[in-house]
Amino acid sequence: MSDYASTEALCGHLAQPERLRVFAAVTLGARSTQQIVQSSGVAISAVGKALVRLRDGGLVSGADGELTAHPEKFKEAMRESAAARPAETLHPDPIRNRLLVSVIRDGRIRVMPEAPAKVRMVLEHVVTVFEPGIRYTEPEINQVLRGFHDDHAMLRRYLVDHALMAREDGVYRRTG
After folding, report:
1. Environment class of residue 7 by beta-carbon count within 10 Å: exposed (0-12), middle (13-18) or buried (19+)?
2. Which residue of 50, 51, 88, 100 is most buried, as measured by CB atoms within 10 A?
3. Considering only CA atoms, which of 34, 31, 39, 37 is closest in space to residue 60?
């Protein structure tokens, strides 16, 4: 089974609200069917069915008198899923790529690094969306930069301060 499929199967074992409540009850210390019924409010017939599915998925083990939850299965499944996912490439240089992937998710800057050299690398990535030689108005620049970060004015200022864009009479152009 692929890593994605194992993660999907794990989630499938908790897809029903009753199963999720039963798993939560066992995770929080319920050790018997009766304790699960009392703490979860799930009917005893549904608890039995849920326990079968949870045991099949490896999320719960043990006999009725000594049930144990295995929440670590989530961590394992997520690690497997992340390892199976192809690494994102935002830059061909592995060092730059590692930095960019750590601060950019889904094309948006989550957090601007503090180190000036790292800020410069992020800005060099951002500026690539602008064509050299083309003149852009401030509203055009703002619209593009909003796609990267809510504080588009900060990005615009950084790009000019780092001489990656030039500003003259409210018109911007990519330098270099």
Report:
1. buried
2. 50
3. 31
